[in-house]
């Protein structure tokens, strides 16, 4: 009884059924004839391009309540192939692509057919054994015979993992402590680097403001002089951060002697870097962006005032705007308030 129940529930899904076997043969034929054979035919189109809205209609994206017959599914498969790039086409030039070779396809189909996880040896003895072997092989090729690894689902995740590992190597306590107890860290990247570096900085808690860009030359190589310069700037910012943090602590009303001594001891550790920066003439004033911009606007207003290109009242009003919430313009004020002759000098 239980057996027949079970077979009922598998009806339409069991590979023992002739209809299902026929379906597998049909879709293999479709993939071979429509997707794979054209890969090596230079006379086919690289892409039958359709505008996005046309493509949506062509694909019939509606999800229906009722199931659809297998023939319809094959038709949809044909459309998916028909609207896609022939990525192995000899006229398709793009990064990261090559034709799918038959032996890799066999491995890919085998993996899909087995539908295994790789999380424990018990559920997937073969895949776990293969994975371990591949990690050892790849890591030994690049000089780490006892290396470990992880397969990444793409380049963004690879970059994110690389940043994470670099940070761990720099300070392994971060694993337990997080970023809260450490000094600010900076990521240096080439100006040609992919934007996934910023994504990584954001995901991992560095903040995108802490990604510093290094100039490259006309062949995409990092310019060493600029790298050197940016490293010095970063060191300086770290030293300045400590200085301001210490000032913050020292300004506290109830800072006892027994608290200030360890703070000084901690601070003393930055002396050598400060010495180095002073000797390299790399120390300059640290200014937050907000104040830098404010200072710039004030200077520009002052220059305009000195050149007589703005009136005293305009100058004062503009300065007021910089420091305070906007005030209404004279024409929007009631008549009695619109006089600003108090400010007039000319
Ligand atoms: C150098 C580099 N990093 C990251 C990426 C992003 O890759 P993915 O789309 O796999 O995340 C690319 C993709 O072009 C890349 O070329």
UniProtKB/TrEMBL annotation:
Record carries keyword Membrane: no
Lineage: superkingdom: Eukaryota
Any one biological process term the GO annotation gives: carboxylic acid metabolic process
InterPro entries, per the entry: PyrdxlP-dep_de-COase, PyrdxlP-dep_Trfase, PyrdxlP-dep_Trfase_major
Keyword Nucleotide-binding: no
MF annotations from Gene Ontology: carboxy-lyase activity; pyridoxal phosphate binding
A Pfam family per the record: Pyridoxal_deC
Signal sequence range: none
Cofactor requirements of the protein: pyridoxal 5'-phosphate
Gene Ontology annotations for the cellular component aspect, listed alphabetically: cytoplasm
Biased amino acid composition, Acidic residues: 334-346
Record keywords, A-Z: Decarboxylase, Lyase, Pyridoxal phosphate
SUPFAM superfamilies: PLP-dependent transferases
Region (Disordered): 321-346
Family: Belongs to the group II decarboxylase family.
Protein name: Acidic amino acid decarboxylase GADL1
Lineage: Eukaryota, Metazoa, Spiralia, Lophotrochozoa, Mollusca
């Amino acid at each position: 009884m239980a057996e027949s129940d079970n077979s009922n529930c598998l009806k339409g899904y069991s590979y023992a059924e002739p209809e299902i076997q026929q379906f597998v043969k049909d879709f293999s034929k479709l993939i071979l004839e429509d997707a794979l054979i054209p890969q090596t035919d230079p006379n086919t189109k690289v892409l039958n391009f359709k505008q996005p809205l046309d493509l949506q209609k062509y694909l019939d994206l509606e999800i229906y309540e009722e199931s659809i017959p297998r023939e319809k599914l094959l038709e949809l498969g044909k459309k998916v192939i028909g609207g896609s790039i022939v990525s192995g086409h000899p006229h398709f030039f793009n990064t990261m692509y090559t034709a799918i070779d038959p032996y890799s396809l066999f491995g890919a189909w085998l993996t899909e057919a087995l539908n295994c996880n790789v999380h424990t040896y018990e559920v997937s003895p073969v895949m776990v054994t293969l994975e371990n072997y591949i990690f050892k092989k790849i890591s030994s090729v690049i000089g780490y015979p006892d290396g470990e690894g992880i397969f990444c689902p793409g380049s963004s995740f690879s970059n994110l993992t690389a940043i994470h590992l670099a940070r761990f190597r720099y300070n392994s306590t971060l694993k337990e402590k997080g970023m809260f107890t450490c000094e600010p860290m900076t990521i240096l990247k080439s100006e040609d680097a992919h934007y996934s570096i910023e994504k990584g900085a954001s995901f991992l808690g560095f903040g995108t403001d802490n990604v510093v860009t290094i100039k490259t030359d006309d062949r995409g190589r990092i310019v060493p002089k600029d790298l050197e310069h940016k490293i010095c700037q970063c060191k300086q910012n770290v030293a300045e951060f400590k200085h301001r943090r210490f000032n913050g602590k020292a300004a506290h009303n109830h800072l006892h002697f027994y608290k200030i001594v360890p703070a000084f001891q901690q601070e003393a550790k930055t002396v050598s870097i400060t010495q180095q920066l002073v000797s390299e003439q790399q120390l300059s004033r640290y200014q937050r962006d907000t104040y830098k911009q404010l200072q710039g606007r004030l200077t520009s207003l002052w220059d305009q005032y000195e050149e007589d290109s703005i009136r005293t009242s305009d100058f004062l009003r503009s300065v007021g705007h910089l420091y305070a919430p906007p005030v209404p313009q004279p024409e929007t004020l009631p008549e009695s308030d619109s006089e600003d002759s108090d400010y007039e000098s000319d």
